[in-house]
Amino acid sequence: MRSSAVAVRPTRTAPPRRPRAPGVDVDLFRHGMPVTPATVLALQRSAGNRAVQRLVQLREPPRASRILSPADREAFVVAELPRTRDRRAGREVMRDMAATSNILDFGSRSELRDELVKRVTVITVMADAQVSRGGLAPFGYPFTGASPYWGPRVGYAARDHWVPPTPDGYDRRLDAAKRATVRGLPRSRRNTVFGDQGSSYQFRLSATGARDPWSAIMLLFEAQPPHKRTLVHCDYLVSLVHFRAFMAVKGKTAFNAAIAAHGPDKVVLKYDLFTELEPSVGGRPGLGSIRQVVPSSEGDLVLGDHVYFFNHPGYDLINKNVGNAWRLENAVLVARKGGADVFLGHGSGRRTHAEMRGKLAEEYNDVARIVLALVRRTGRGSAASRTAARTELGTRFPAVVQVAGAWRVVGTGMLGVAVDMPLRLLRASDVPGLFDPSNPGVLYRVRRAAESA
After folding, report:
1. Which residue of 6, 159, 245, 357 shows the fewest CB atoms closer than 10 Å?
2. 3 state SS of 153
3. Peptide bond just before 19 cis, omega within 30 deg
4. Neighbours of 12 (CB within 10 A)
5. In degrees rounded to 5, what are phi and psi of residue 125?
């Protein structure tokens, strides 16, 4: 979750996940029938994108390219993933990779292994990061939930590996007056009470962390009490999850060597740290562990994908001076349940796309109700009270204006989208969710392991 003259159209309802085309059988090869990439692509073209299958193709020269059968995939998982938990997740990932459109092409066994390990790691690490036992958890949100008085910080176990330090050395902050002040402020200003970093917070590797970035990252995942745990937003956490996946395929020695070559100064824990893991572009070096893809449909998502759920573009306009969360949610596709994709974000819990959009609409409406109540006050009571309400409305919500007697939200919203819409409560279908706010008919890009072509 992140806080912070054309209305955005409600996004369309996505088709059911992974519909099968008549005559297209992902298990054709089990019955001795020839299934080549060309055959599959021809079937895809005739069936249409929503009804096609993605197959996992492996090239192991000098052997010819081959599409992995279910038995091949099972043998691969058993050989490459020693832990029972990882094998369970690996089987689901391989099944998912083989059940969506287009062929995933791997140039070697090691490429397929690396992608599988990354996807399994993303799923399991994201899940573990949300677990709380006995009041101890590795991660939380600044000034939220169990950590209402504590701002952005790295976990106590990692304190020597990152800078800057917390302003008061992980104090429990028991001052009742200051606690009351924190509760009375919008989240965007709560950092001012105890001297925490503001909304653009970031942490850099210390000299200790630069020598051993592996430990610097791993120690952030140690469970701690509310004031000592790592308190960051969803994009910070998903960056760390991507790094954990890269670490899982490299191992400690190779990972530390890779960071030393890349530059420890580039490992800055901030909202877009994951961009360091993308391929080199132009003169900008990258570690090449993940890439961006624009899926053609929800059926093209694969377990382990990092996705974005967007609130309505107008949320930025009405929430600017409130500072609530849920501007957008970074999440990972972690499971399928009853034919529906299940996503897990930092603090959002496991939700389907529909449930996530419902939650985003709920958060929009929480702020909209504040505005609507203020608007009602502009037309009631004494002249002085009406004037005061209008003044407050103009100060707190400058994007809410009266046009021809109707109150509207007008301005430039998220991703530069022009917003001009009635001030009202939203339905879940009004929220873009997985779709691009600037082009609601198209899914927004996802980040995923870079190995498959």
Report:
1. 6
2. strand
3. no
4. 10
5. -70, -40
DSSP for residue 430: G
Q: Which residues, at least 6 apart from 32, have a Cβ–Cβ distance to it below 8 Å?
A: none
Domain spans, the chain: 37-109, 316-449
Written as six digits, the tokens of 177 are 């007056």
* In the predicted structure, residue 407 carries a pLDDT above the cut 80: yes
Say which residue the tokens 């790691």 belong to.
Answer: 121
- In sequence order, the β-bridge partners of residue 290 are 449
Average pLDDT over residues 384-395: 96
**C-alpha span between 403 and 409 (Å, rounded):** 10
Residue with tokens 């501007």: 327
- Name the nearest CA neighbour of 247 among 345, 371, 118: 118
Pick the closest to residue 320 from 425, 395, 415 (CA basis).
395
Q: Which amino acid is at 46?
A: S
For the stretch 282-309, pLDDT in tens is: 778 899 999 999 988 898 899 999 999 9
Tokens coding 163 = 């800078």
**How many Cα neighbours within 13 Å face the side chain of 232?**
28
Q: In 3-state terms, the chain is what percent helix, strand and coil (to 5)? A: 40, 20, 40
Alpha helices (H) along 130-233:
176-184, 191-194, 207-211, 213-218
* Distance, CA of 236 to CA of 270 (rounded, Å): 6
130-137 long-range contacts (CB < 8 A, ≥24 apart) are 130/344, 130/346, 130/347, 130/349, 131/223, 132/223, 133/223, 135/225, 135/226, 136/223, 136/224, 136/225, 136/229, 137/223, 137/224, 137/226, 137/229
> In Å, what is the CA distance from 261 to each residue of 190, 287, 343, 372, 428?
38, 10, 34, 54, 46
Using a 10 angstrom Cβ sphere, with 0-12 exposed, 13-18 middle and 19 or more buried, the burial of residue 185 is middle
| Number of residues that make up the chain | 453
